[in-house]
Amino acid sequence: xxxxxxxxxxxxxxxxxxxxxxxxxxxxxxxxxxxxxxxxxxxxxxxxxxxxxxxxxxxxxxxxxxxxxxxxxxxxxxxxxxxxx
Length: 85
Fold this sequence. Notes:
Oligomer: single chain
């Protein structure tokens, strides 16, 4: 069952640390992920899939870009824009 947007940022950070092995101690909502090399394009697809499962939505492949997904804040902004929140 989808969890909703509340607390999604923390759940994404947990996913990055526990499922993708991102070990940067300073990682936070505003941390650049792709442009700093912490994650790659395959990881972005995995994060998008995680968000889809958490929210029960479908993210078009063309939306999984560095512009939308380079930080957790960017991911949350994307999700809010898509949902009209």
